[in-house]
Hints:
Elements: E1 3-6, E2 9-15, H1 17-34, E3 40-46, H2 50-57, E4 64-75, E5 82-87, E6 97-105, H3 109-120, E7 125-133, E8 146-150, E9 156-157, E10 173-176
Parallel strand pairs: 3-4, 3-6, 6-7, 7-8
Antiparallel strand pairs: 1-2, 2-10, 4-5, 9-10
Bound molecules: guanosine-5'-monophosphate.
Guanosine-5'-monophosphate binds next to strand 6, helix 3 and strand 9.
Amino acid sequence: MKEIRILDKKFREFITEKEIHERIEELARQMNTDLAGKDVVFLGILNGAFLFAADLFRLIDLEVRISFVKLASYEGTSSSGSIKELIGWNEDIKNKTIVVIEDIVDTGITLDRIVDELVIRKASEIKVAALLYKPASYTKDIPVDYVGFEIPNDFVVGYGLDYNGYGRNLPSVYTLIE
Ligand code: 5GP
């Protein structure tokens, strides 16, 4: 079992590169069927989803577009502290089928924030794809239509996901060793 160290923490390989790619092939096949004939825009959520979005997107065999947005924290003027703002919109969302591409859905707060914005921008249909999904910590009702892997509530890194900025370049997903 492969173990690695990032900064002060140790991680164990949890989902291999091969398993990730096989699963992405299955998701892409399903999407190629489900999304045929629709006006589709993939919306990747930076930073974490960049590898998943790229690997998935190149297996999509339809006329689709892709765009990326990023959640930025900024200090609000109120005392409530940091608020997340979605930045980088450069695609017309109105009347389109939007496929949100997330690295991981944990509590679902991020996803909820993104879906709110897509509703305001009048997307006709919203689908969600997440490489990883932690059902035990999910607090929202938004369906996650395409799930790569359901995982327990442990901290993971690799394949786009970071620990303090590092580990995104790892080709497999690793889990924290307690
Ligand atoms: P949510 O808003 O669903 O609670 O969390 C989504 C975001 O939290 C993800 O896009 C990711 O940035 C971060 N996150 C949640 N769980 C993990 C994890 O296990 N590892 C890493 N590296 N990030 C996580």
